[in-house]
Structure formats: C-alpha cells, structure tokens
Amino acid sequence: MHSFFRIILLLLLTDIYIYAQDKPEPKPGCFTKMIVIDGDTMPHMDLRQVLVFPEFKFKTKRQAQKFDKLIFNVKKVYPYAKLAGAKLREIETNLGYITTESLRKFYVKDEERKLKQEFEEDLKKLTISQGKILIKLIDRETGRTTYQLVKDLRGSLSAFIWQTLARLFGSDLKAEYDPEGDDKKIEIVIQLIENGQL
Questions:
Q1: How far apart are CA 189 and CA 198, in angstroms?
Q2: pLDDT, tens digit, for every residue of 138-185?
Q3: By the 8 A CB rule, do 149 and 88 touch?
Q4: What pLDDT is attached to residue 17?
Q5: Which tens digits make up the pLDDT trace of 90-133?
Q6: Is the dihedral of CA 51, 53, 56, 57 positive or negative?
Q7: Which of 25, 38, 134, 149 could form a disulfide with 77 if both were Cys (CB 3.0 to 4.6 A apart)?
Q8: CA atoms of 49 and 194, how far apart (whole Å)
Q9: How far apart are CA 57 and CA 36, in angstroms?
Q10: Is residue 54, in this structure, part of any structural domain at all?
Q11: What is the CA angle 75-86-154, rounded to 5?
Q12: How far apart (Å, rounded) are the C-alpha atoms in residues 67 and 71?
C-alpha cells in the first residue's frame, strides 16, 4: 500500500515538475527585493516617506473652504513656477556663452517671445490670487523676486513699469517667499505635492 502512495506521489510530483517547466512566464505582480542577514533570506522593501504635519483646525466652514482653494491655486500655479526656475537657469547658462550685449538682448527677447507664445493664454486665465501665489513661488524657485528677475533680464525701467501694473491689481513683484511665516501653508501644500500626497 505504501508503494502505491509513493507511485502516486511520484506521478504527481513529476506532473507538477513538467507543468512548472511548461508554465508560461509569470505575469507581472508584486515582487520584492530580498536580502540575506546571517544566512536568513528576508524580504526588503523601500517605503516611500510620508510627510505628516499638524492638522489644521478650522473654526468655520469658510476657513476650510479657503484652505481648499489655496490647495487648488497652488496646484494650478506651481508647475509654472517650476518651469520659470528651470527656464531661468537655462537662460543664465546660455547667456554665459554670449559675449556681446546686443546678442544677449536679442537672445533674451527671443526667449521671452517663445514663452509668451507658449504660455500667455494660460497665464491670462489665472486669477489675481493665483498670480500672487505665482509671484511668491517664483521667488521660492529662483531665489530672486519677480521684480529682480525682470530688472536683471529687461532693465530697471521695465521692472518699474511691471511693478506699477502689478500694484494696480493688488500684487507686488517684490513679494518674497516666507516658508516659516506668511507662506507656511503654501510650503506645506508644496511639500505634500512634491511627495505625491496631494
């Protein structure tokens, strides 16, 4: 009787072995890295960092809605601020290779024209609140206020004119980003966005 079970078991194992050899490649699934510690093989996973901030307490529904609106506005303009920072670094690098002042001015005007062509319509649709946040985020990304950037790239007169226009709409191109003070909530929202939590 025991030999009968052995034969059945052997046949089953042979079938399993043959089946395993003919089995198609496994479909993508959940795989994990393994590490060996003192001879033991253990699963190893890199967990994504999760940021935790103190919960905001809102006294009224209106305050909660205002914060939700801030999240919406930051998500809307943050990509433009990131782009502004990257574009500025590119322009400054390229200006380092241009030797004459006339070519430098031509290059800056040409880049401005391209940016206008690509983004002017989108930026026109921003609300005043979104514009104010964008001005601050440009300072965060570049380390310079929007006023200083305009002054450096287009001259003092242009910076003065744009600052005057901004003031008419309640904005300030000289506004600096303050992540520990007035802009603390914006900074938290940005960190959550960057970490994929928003």
A1: 8
A2: 999 888 888 888 888 778 887 788 778 777 777 888 888 999 999 999
A3: yes
A4: 46
A5: 988 998 898 898 998 898 888 888 888 888 888 888 888 998 99
A6: positive
A7: 134
A8: 11
A9: 46
A10: no
A11: 105
A12: 6
C-alpha dihedral, 166 to 145 to 80 to 189, nearest 10°: -100
Token pair of 86, please? 């990257």
The boundaries of the domain holding residue 177 are: 67-105+115-194
Give residue 170's pLDDT.
79
The total number of structural domains in the chain stands at 1
Q: Collect all residues with Cβ–Cβ distance below 8 Å to 148 and sequence separation of at least 6.
A: 159, 174
Mean pLDDT, all residues of the chain: 81
DSSP 8-state assignment for residue 180: T
Q: Residues near 151 by Cβ (< 8 Å), separated by ≥ 6?
A: 158, 159
Contact 68, 187 (CB under 8 A): no
- 174 within domain boundaries: yes
- What pLDDT is stored for residue 114 in this prediction? 87
Buried b (16+ CB within 10 A) or exposed e, 92-122: eeeeeeeeeeeeeeeebeebeeeeeeeeeee
Q: Is residue 20 part of a domain?
A: no
- Report d(CA 136, CA 186) in Å as an integer: 10
Query: How far apart, in whole angstroms, are the C-alpha atoms of residue 24 and residue 83?
Result: 46
Q: What would the pLDDT profile of 3-31 be if each residue is shown by its tens digit?
A: 544 555 444 444 444 444 544 565 566 66
Helix (H, G, I), strand (E, B) or coil at 36: strand
- Pairing of the two strands 40-44 and 33-37: antiparallel
**DSSP character for 100?**
S
Inside any domain, residue 134: yes
